[in-house]
Amino acid sequence: MALEKFTLETLVTMDGGRIGNQLLKAIQRLEADCRDRPAEVKKRAVAMIFEMQPTYVMDGGRPTLDTIEFGVRWQEKIPPRRTRIYSARPLARGGMAYNDESPDDADQMTLGRTPDRPKVLEDDEEEKPARGKA
Q1: CA 41 → CA 27, 35, 82, 85, distances in Å?
Q2: DSSP assignment letter at 67
């Protein structure tokens, strides 16, 4: 195939359309994030960065442009994803424990954690029956 003149139109179709497809996929990721988190009002962005580097040959002791190497890279800016804040209690032997039925308050008494069974079992402990029960 003959050399083609480089233009913005040929940029998105060259190499089997890879550059155009990458741009489209980046835009689709931004759209998907907007659909997934519509209450996150921060802007999403994609930047196409075109990089170019000359190569040269020496001609009569002077550098002369030989070819131009170029490529495209993408930078996407999507607001970070965060979970809610969870509450946990430190364990005496290291580690921590949380209450899955009350994620924001590790001390909350719930069905699995009652006054007669207030603590989390350590790895080497066995559950003992409550006082007065066999």
Answers
A1: 17, 11, 14, 20
A2: E
Is the C-alpha dihedral spanning 55, 59, 64, 68 positive or negative? negative
Higher pLDDT, 73 or 122: 73
Cα 90 to chain centroid, rounded: 29
Spatial separation of the C-alpha atoms in residues 114 and 74, rounded to whole Å = 54
Query: How many CA atoms lie within 13 Å of 21's alpha carbon, on the beta-carbon side?
Result: 6
Domain ranges for the chain: 8-77, 83-114
Burial class (CB in 10 A: 0-12, 13-18, 19+), 34: middle
Q: Per DSSP, what are the bridge partners of residue 74?
A: 48
- Residue range 2-11: average pLDDT? 90
- This model's pTM is above 0.85: no
Interatomic CA distance for residues 79 and 41, integer angstroms = 9
